[in-house]
Design goal:
144 residues, alpha+beta, 20% helix, binds FE2/S2 (inorganic) cluster, Rieske Iron-sulfur Protein, 6-stranded antiparallel β-sheet, 4-stranded antiparallel β-sheet, 2 domains, 10 strands
Length: 144
Amino acid sequence: MSRRAFFINALMGVSLLSGIALMASYFVRFLFPVSNVKVSRKLYVGDVRQIPPGKSTSFTDLKGQKLNIVNTGDEFIALSTKCTHLGCQVFWKERERLFFCPCHDGFFDERGNVVKGPPPAPLTTYKVEVVGQGVYIYVDEVHV
Ligand code: FES
């Protein structure tokens, strides 16, 4: 075998082995996918004086998801604004101290529990923390 033929065969062999190794790595990643990592982020909502008792304020997180933060007088509660029936936006009715879904007359109390109407489940709640005068919420994010 000539030196030239030897180098051509060696180059083709290395290329073939590299291709097989790359395909094997994709196959292993397909069989054993990396598990999703759940990260909880603490987001500043505002000052406690901006949300007096009986009031609610809306907040949009970094992914554009809307939340309502309610001051019940005893605590702050953060709830999704997405109705659990068909996903319409719920609104705070201050006088009744209820969240109202105008799509099919669904009502939720200030803790997100269903009071009346077709919603099958309570509103999604988020952890709230008050540090000094600041109100913070914790939002979970999943990283793939
Ligand atoms: S979508 Fe809210 S009650 Fe139907």
